[in-house]
Each structure stands twice: as structure tokens, then as C-alpha cells.
Amino acid sequence: MDVKEINRRTIAQFRAGGDIEGMHRDRLVLLTTTGRRSGAPHTTPMMFHRDGDRLLIIGSNVGAPDHPDWYLNLRENPHVTVEVGEETYPALATPLTGDDHAVTWAMLKNAYPFFAEHEMKTSRVIPVVALTRA
Fold first, then answer.
1. Separation CA 63–CA 49 (nearest Å)
2. Is the four-CA dihedral 44, 50, 53, 59 of positive or negative sign?
3. pLDDT at 122 over 70
């Protein structure tokens, strides 16, 4: 499976406004971060959960031992671009910590049980990131 090719196709389908093969358009966000080494923009499609005015994204990386690149990028530069629905806007990415992370992570695992499966595959704490309009 070529994840980069799947992401390229998903991004193109999302931006074209049509159906997205194998995904629910209303649960998909395109997150553009700045590469921590290259300084170049990187766009990643991912699932989100709406929580009031913020969007929550999860760095489960399907239970891999390392954090996803997009998460490492936004830790270096939290100013990101969000594409959701028909909107594109600048946002601030804030990793949740402490009780906010614990309560939110428990809620997300309850709502989406596959995240609990991802958690069981790794020893790292899976990050939850809030995206708020900048």
C-alpha cells in the first residue's frame, strides 16, 4: 500500500468537491503543516472530531511506535492551515495535555473504538491536538 499515493488521491478528491473513495467527506480535514526540516508545506488528510469551535485530530499513526510527521511538524510550528467542508482557514494547533488530554482521549476512544486498538499497539502517549481558528 502506497500511503503517499492514497493521500495525494484523497487530497485531490477532497479539493475537487466530490466523493472521496473509502472515506466520509464530513469527517475529513486536510491539515497543512510546515516541514520542520524543509520549511515546505505538507498537507495530510485525516479524520477529525468537532468539539465546539475546535476540531480535534488524533496522532495515533495506527499504533506505530513513532508520532506521525504532521504532529512533529506542528510541534515545531503550530501555525497550520485547515481545509474542512468548503472552508480553508489559518489555525493554531495545540496539543492537549494533562486532564484535558485524559478526558478528551477517553471520550474519543469511546466514540471511535479503533483508537483504543491503536493505543494497545504502542507504548507512546497518543497525541490529541485541538485546531482553533487563528
1. 19
2. negative
3. yes
